[in-house]
Amino acid sequence: MENRIITISRQFGSGGRTIGKEVANQLNIKCYDAQIIEEVAKASGYAETFIKENSEYTTYSSFLGQILSARDYQGKTPADQIWIIQKKIIEDIAKKESCVIVGRCADYILKDKNILKVFIHSSLDNRAKRIVEKYGETDKDPIARLKDKDKKRSSYYEFYTDIKWGDATNYDIALDSGTLGLDKCVEIIKSLY
Amino acid sequence: MENRIITISRQFGSGGRTIGKEVANQLNIKCYDAQIIEEVAKASGYAETFIKENSEYTTYSSFLGQILSARDYQGKTPADQIWIIQKKIIEDIAKKESCVIVGRCADYILKDKNILKVFIHSSLDNRAKRIVEKYGETDKDPIARLKDKDKKRSSYYEFYTDIKWGDATNYDIALDSGTLGLDKCVEIIKSLY
After folding, report:
1. Which of A47, A131, B10, B77 lies deepest, with the highest CB count within 10 Å?
2. B21-37, pLDDT tens digit by residue?
3. Subunit contact B180:A173, Cβ cutoff 8 A
């Protein structure tokens, strides 16, 4: 039987990664997230920090991004090269086993496969509360941090997929983790597997 | 205890109304849809057909719409007047009882109440199949009929609410009735009540 993959796209601070890990845990399958970054790092030779900065967020605002946006002889930026490697890794994982994949445009990359596409979101207030609890305070206001992350994540997604990030019609199911609660989200996703 | 309302927004042909009725049936509460139109008709004195044409769809393309878009002494079009009456009726229902309300921007009108906001969608192909089965063939291609209805419904919604229709973040839960199946949608919504 074809492997069954759950892809989770999520707003920063919505608990999407926590939900993905718990779903995988309860279903006794793997959850890919940071692991993918590591594999990308190994396959590409790029340092892991650089990949973290370039793989899911657009680089337009960073000085590093400007230096690194030089194109190679095929016209590809480092971010494009990472996209290609990452895509290959996600396709390989999907061939190998049933699993949960959080982020990384996996829903788009695996769109022709047997996948359950999930989107997790939550209000700015709920997410601000969560990131402060989870990552602590910084100099920057949590709402501003979230807006910045949302903007970068959606730009990256829309640049590589040409699909509007967060549009309900792209997903089998979209859940507000703030109003429904993380446990309820896990339960619903599990029941659809 | 405050009444608990389930609001269902839906793409035309997605089965959202059928899902709403079944949820209400299983929960033993009322489902409001056509009834609202009737109440609007009674309260406003407009003929029911006219309200059907003006209440959920914008009228820009119809000849009737042009005639009727004359504004009254307060600058309100007939569609604006229907909006006001309809809003009042929905608020009254929400005060009276727990129920399901399908369409009519009820999610927006009752946004400060104890509501569960649901969005039901499905691919164009799935919806085309469904409307042909349900309403039969017409001279117009079903895909074109759907696109037209989607456009009108979203224009109406966005005109009166200033919120993007179908954006996942507006709803507690958004479900693809085509990939998940109507029964599964009913089960999930019921479990959240």
Report:
1. B10
2. 999 999 999 999 877 76
3. yes
